[in-house]
Amino acid sequence: MTENAPPPVSLRAFRVFSPQGCHRIVFMSELDVAKEKIAYLKVWLGILLVTDISTFGWLVSNVDTATPLLLWAAVVVVVALTLGIVFLHRRIDRHIQSLKGL
Asked: FRET label pair with 36: which of 5, 13, 42, 44, CA 20 to 30 Å apart?
């Protein structure tokens, strides 16, 4: 191998099914698989963020009228969602840091 040659690309095979019932095999590089995994996690991060902001907004706007049980439930949900956001953000960051070697 020469000095200027690109490094070998590692490929993964995936079986893709179509609505018509037939399937085909698709090859993706490890880098593409990692990017897709990060994109999927970012979608869930966005869903958690919107849910957290909405629940917090409901909590602030209904603090005077809601029952104490409902308020405490909203506080627990906001804390759980916030912890989930932090966990998911750290997981995405670890995936991004692992791309440095590819």
From this structure: 5
Q: Is residue 8 part of a domain?
A: no
- Please indicate, yes or no, whether the overall pTM of this predicted structure exceeds 0.85: no
At 7 the three-state DSSP class reads coil
Could you list the residue range(s) of the whole structural domain that residue 53 is in?
31-101
Whole-angstrom distance, CA of residue 95 vs CA of residue 37 = 8
**Residue 81 covered by a domain:** yes
How many domains does the chain fold into? Answer: 1
Task: Give the mean pLDDT per block of 10 residues along the chain (102 residues).
Answer: 56 69 72 90 97 97 95 97 98 91 70
